[in-house]
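Please, structure for the following, as tokens.
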Amino acid sequence: MYLIIIFAVLFCLFLLKYFLILCIRCYQKIAPKEIRGRCLYEPTCSEYMILAIKKYGVIKGILKGIDRLKRCHYPNGGVDYP
């Protein structure tokens, strides 16, 4: 019984990872160029979030992405990979 619950939770987290990446990719395609072009970092903040989710998993990746969004203003900038 516990094995089934653990498997279900892990499966949901696995799907959540790809759903979040899909949502970010949609943002990259749909958002106006003025909004997407404001990022001061390389890679962009949305690409950083995708890389962080892939590298660290859903929870830690989102936290790292949010931290990056907080830092994305003048005078910060440059190359920053997760």
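The two ends are 37 Å apart (CA to CA). Helices lie at 2-30, 33-36, 45-56, 58-71.
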